[in-house]
Amino acid sequence: MPTTRISATLTETQRESALQAIATIKEKLPFLIDISNEERKALPKMGDKSRAFVSKALEVATQNPEFLPRSFDLEEMRKDVQLFEALYPLLLSLTQLQELVDDTSLAVGSEAYAAALQVYAYAKASGQGAGLETVVEEMGQRFARKSHRAKPKTAAL
Q1: Are 12 and 129 in contact (CB under 8 A)?
Q2: Residue 117 is inside which H or E element, if any?
Q3: pTM of the model
Q4: How far apart are CA 85 and CA 38, in angstroms?
Q5: Least packed by Cβ within 10 Å: which of 34, 82, 109, 137?
Q6: Distance of CA 92 to CAs 75, 81, 85, 88, 106, Å?
Q7: Comparing C-alpha atoms, which of 80, 94, 99 is closest to residue 28?
Q8: Do 145 and 39 meet the contact criterion of CB atoms below 8 Å apart?
Q9: What share of the chain is helix, strand, coil (3-state, %, to 5)?
Q10: Residue 91 to residue 25: CA distance in whole angstroms
Q11: Per-residue pLDDT reduced to its tens digit, 6-45
């Protein structure tokens, strides 16, 4: 049997508690939005390098508002910067949590699949006459290959 990296169970109570905690987070952040992939691609992104630029721009705009057009909403820019900075630690923490859940799910899924492969191999080798032929055949469908034969090319005259 392959190495077991994780041996745990998740009770229904634990799962429901975690889902409730996630629902509570969503409830506490009612301003969260969902954007389409097209919108996501079109938006300018603020990464680590851009954070310093945005901070400096806000400082310049705050100290010199006279050069900005009247239509420029400096207070809205300030709110956007403050909200971004407030959300940033949440984003880092949730990203770390998602990576842990992803890694755990990947590892435990891999362990389960490796164990299933062993069961299949043992059933295939020892299942003759034990009434496992049908089950082994059904399990073998996982490995059935679809025929992707290329159509014969006609020779050019």
Answers
A1: no
A2: helix 74-126
A3: 0.74
A4: 25
A5: 34
A6: 26, 17, 11, 6, 21
A7: 94
A8: no
A9: 70, 0, 30
A10: 12
A11: 999 999 999 999 999 999 999 999 999 999 999 999 999 9
> Do the Cβ atoms of 122 and 139 come closer than 8 Å?
no
Is residue 1 a contact partner of residue 115, using CB atoms and an 8 Å limit?
yes
Task: Give dist(CA 106, CA 41) in Å, integer.
Answer: 28
Q: Are 102 and 109 in contact (CB under 8 A)?
A: no
In the three-class reduction of DSSP (H, G, I as helix; E, B as strand; rest coil), residue 141 is classed as helix
Token couple for 144: 């059935």
Dihedral sign, Cα of residue 35, residue 36, residue 39, residue 44:
positive
For residue 68, the 8-state DSSP code is S
Give the mean pLDDT per block of 10 residues along the chain (157 residues): 83 97 97 96 92 96 96 97 96 97 96 90 77 82 74 58
Contact 78/62 with Cβ under 8 angstroms? yes
Q: Quick one: pLDDT at residue 150? A: 60
What pLDDT was estimated at residue 153? 61
